Sequence to fold (151 residues):
Amino acid sequence: MERIGCSSAVCGGIGQWIDYFHLLNDRPGPTVRDDERQRIVMFESVAQVETNGNLLYIPELLRVKGTILLLLPEHNRNDAEACFLQALELSRDQGARAWELRAAIDLARLLAARGAIDEAHELLRPVFEHFVEGLGTTDLRDAERLLATLR
Fold:
């Protein structure tokens, strides 16, 4: 991941965000486990946002952080769950429905993996039902498939 040339005087420290959006475009998957740089960039991004108080993107940052935590060899499900819960709460506070859906999907998957099928379904169903358009998007299709497996 190369940073786009941008001095901090001009961009105000946006280089970290450029790296973060590269992370989002790659969507965490099995290869994240092998990429220490992605983990470092994500954790630094969350720390930077928490420090500077610009919380606009924090729900999505926390969700991706939780996903990365689950993919690490020494994954900690409790820390990942805490990230997903905080992402869910903050996205609701912001009215960011798409990020709320993503956080709910990831948390529902984690709950289902723990055997809490009913809790996962009850968490995801109302979030999914808020959407009346865009039902063909990847996130909504993922939510629908997950809900079908949780019945």
About this structure: The chain is about 70% helix and 0% strand. The domain at 8-149 is CATH 1.25.40.10 (Serine Threonine Protein Phosphatase 5, Tetratricopeptide repeat).
